[in-house]
Amino acid sequence: MSNLTLKQLRYFAALARHGHFGHAAEACAISQPALSMQIKELEETLGTMLFERGARQVRLTGFGEVFAERVREILRDVDELGDLARASRDRLVGRLRIGIIPTIAPYLLPRIIGDLTRAFPELDIQVRETLTPKLAQELSDGLLDTAIVALPVSDPAFAEVPILTENFVLVRHARQAGQPAPSREKLRGMRLLLLEEGHCFRDQALSFCSIPTGRPREGLDGSSLSTLVQMVGAGIGVTFIPEMAVEVETRSASVSVTRFDDAQPCRTIGMIWRRSNPLAGQLDRIARVIHCACQAG
Amino acid sequence: MSNLTLKQLRYFAALARHGHFGHAAEACAISQPALSMQIKELEETLGTMLFERGARQVRLTGFGEVFAERVREILRDVDELGDLARASRDRLVGRLRIGIIPTIAPYLLPRIIGDLTRAFPELDIQVRETLTPKLAQELSDGLLDTAIVALPVSDPAFAEVPILTENFVLVRHARQAGQPAPSREKLRGMRLLLLEEGHCFRDQALSFCSIPTGRPREGLDGSSLSTLVQMVGAGIGVTFIPEMAVEVETRSASVSVTRFDDAQPCRTIGMIWRRSNPLAGQLDRIARVIHCACQAG
DNA sequence: GATTGGACATAAGGAAAACTTATCGCGAAA
DNA sequence: TTTCGCGATAAGTTTTCCTTATGTCCAATC
Which residues form the HTH lysR-type domain (chains A, B) (predicted)? Predict the structure, then answer.
């Protein structure tokens, strides 16, 4: 009637090892009758005798022997469960699903993944690159563990930790190199090339220029910073890119880069995760590692 | 502090499957708080969170997922334990160690093993051939499960079941073929070839001739019935062999076989096993199979 | 923005399980 | 026969586990 118990299996294993109720009971730190009862109940549950109670000795039955073998395996596996938990409590193990927005991914991801892998070799890192709203949704749904986005996200369910703050630079055609940075008013008069809608970087750029984000704009939208820079190089207009993208994107285009002196446009990159995530503490450690990774560059 | 419990693992598996405390509890046929408490205790035992309690849903943590995988395996193994027991309750499985005396083994063993293997294909039969006292000792020590010997053994610790009763025949030289069976008095005057001391068959033959068994005898002792028959064929004396040995042993020797008319000498072959052996019932079944095997011949 | 409802946690009390000490009974050894 | 070792059984107590009732939080709804 009653189900099998791990306790019964442990007692059984002890008795099988000692071949003596008294000694086995002592090894289990219980009294001999307690062990007798558990063994008896185990045998009743199985409907088979496990031990042959001789006058002077207790012996496993034939079935008891094959049973004992299996039980030893099971107990070992169960004990390994505990080890597994203990191990994963300290060091970070298993899968870590990171979301990241497209205006960060190409520039920071190699360094981030490198440093994380070095810091947590047992971590299986999976990356998903898409826009912030989708990342937030997937984070909520438990499809992601954390995301690297531009702050603030301002979702009360998420914890936010800043990673780095970086300026935007103006990208103009190469022939405009050396010209001073235009004022915002002048900027609004230029043909400003931006990312497609949905990219937070688009909104941040518009915001810097004091242009309402909702309003339909004339002009072309690019699907990546790389595309935008190439368009600038072709003389189609100007654009912004974040500082971290400068080196990569302006290398092979006839463009010039201009930094603003005062009131520099900037964005804050940060990590977010569900507050309810029990990994919160370890995500904090990860955030610190990523922080260092980004500062170092 | 408290140890892992199978119950906890079962509840955990249910919750992992349902992702909902209420539903999982229902599936386990317990109340929701009971499940909550067990899960909580499991998590405390492990020192790690297994589930992420969201506002609207319950999700496994990363560690919880790898944990769940292992737990499923363990639960499956444990359930197989029950199956294993249930299976071995009916049909006979595992090792069966049979002891048998030398004056039976060559003649009955092939048929016995054949029939047993046919009746219980999952039985792993091991045979040990030696004299009755040694068999009895090994049976007591648990080195054998059963033995096929001449009854009675009269050990109160052993159960005895007769298998067959067979007569002894007198083996004389071929030139004496057709001569009537001698009386016991005449027998005592002949040179009687017997097995070495320790063989019960020796004692039974002596007993038939009303010769005290303990007394030192003139004459030669053979180590097997085959040897004895060959010696008879060489004209050295006469001997007894059991009926079952006639066909095999007298085929290639110049001997004649004589059966007694009245007061035929005989022995009863039977199976013995420890009364305390929980397999007693199944040994009974085996005895019946062997019984049939011997009758059929 | 107050309210309602769903869902898990907590509390308290009671039923069941498990352990303890004491004792019995059996078989072997002295 | 007595004695002794050892496992089974009995009775009582502690611990565990489950139940019902209640609390709390959060999200959805009006």
Answer: 4-61
